[in-house]
Amino acid sequence: MTPPGGAAAPLYLDYQATTPVDDRVFEAMRPYFREHFGNAASTTHAFGWRADAAVTLAREQVADALGATSPEQVIFTSGATESNNLALLGSAEARRRRGRHLISVATEHPSVLDPLGALAERGFDVTLLPVGPDGVLDPEVLRGALRPDTLLVSVMAANNEIGVLQPIESLAAIAREAGALVHCDAAQAVTKVPFDVSALGVDLVSVSAHKCYGPKGVGALWVRAPRVRPAPLLFGGGHEAGLRPGTLPVPLLVGMGAAFEIGSALREHEAATLVKLRTQLLARLREGLGDAIAVNGDLERRLPGNLNLRVAGIDATLLVSALSDVALSVGSACASATPQPSHVLKALGLPDAALRGSFRVGLGRDTDAQTIDRAASRLLEEIDLLRRAAPAGTLRDRPDLASAGNVE
Length: 408
What we know:
This protein folds into 2 domains: 11-20 and 268-401, Aspartate Aminotransferase, domain 1; 23-263, 3-Layer(aba) Sandwich (Aspartate Aminotransferase, domain 2), CATH 3.40.640. The protein is 38% helix and 13% strand. It has 12 helices and 12 strands. It has helices at 23-29, 46-66, 80-94, 110-121, 139-145, 168-177, 197-200, 250-289, 316-322, 343-347, 352-356, 369-389, and strands spanning 11-12, 74-77, 101-105, 125-129, 150-154, 181-185, 204-208, 219-223, 293-295, 306-311, 326-327, 358-362. The chain has a 7-stranded mixed sheet, sandwiched between helices. It has a 3-stranded antiparallel sheet with strand order 9-10-12. Strands 1-11 form a two-stranded parallel sheet. Helix 2 runs parallel beside helix 8 (250-289) and helix 3 packs parallel to helix 4. The longest helix has 40 residues, at 250-289.
């Protein structure tokens, strides 16, 4: 589609930050904003019964997408950030008699790292494990870090920046053998790669609808009850098995359930398509840049639609700013207001120049071959301009970008 004025529509290649709501999801949600507006907790009339039935279906759809046998184990939240907080803070409080040691990974999302930091300030002992240059945690490193007082291990399934997939099944088996609970932030993984809570052996899983073509503002924490019961963080009404009070946002839950069901059905087909498109893009860039471009993290053990790239001799912030017609990012959306280098890329051991030259490309459901061709051409064009402007690609050498902002 070409907008008024003849300019080509901007390309969206930031699907790890968020996804558009699928048309089918939007249509499923629509009636619950007006016609079926009842409160799911209203048990005395048809409006409440219809809303409750919609919530029940959504809970079943999310459980099915996770491979869970009991929908009641799905606790609805406002998103993966809240789910991560409930899993970590709630489990630490509930299991503090076992010990005060928690383990996670240096490349985790801030919504895991920040709650762990808060727990450290409260007297808990937190260990952050290193990853290899490929971004993968060695299970033996976890084994060596476990202690008798380790109460929980938290490892994300798929990294939001570099897309690397962790060996969750092996890690969970080691942690559970030591008596620790296993929490997994699966916001980027569910409906994108195979994910089954029963097969993986995890105890708590955080997910978010807006990473899966559902609405923003809703997510879930799957809890392996009765083995696990975190302490609630909020109080007032006893909703969600007493773990998360508040009136349920029925339209958002309907959307989340629909998005998870659709995404699960399309997962294999979409993954194959995205890997093909990713390979096409990388080949075009390598053809134009040769050894100047490299992939951050393991290329094979990765989300199908993710590329995290570094280009020698450029500042990626300037590149993203120059590409006003292509939506990319230099890190995670949640950290875009923080001018610090990516903690994920630093954990890979990259030098400062490589950190400055790194950016993330996220492909998704609406990406096609034409999008890839146009994006590759624009990337090569702007990278060439930056590299010719100055070896370091500074603002002094590109005054046209001095006031430009980040895409995110």
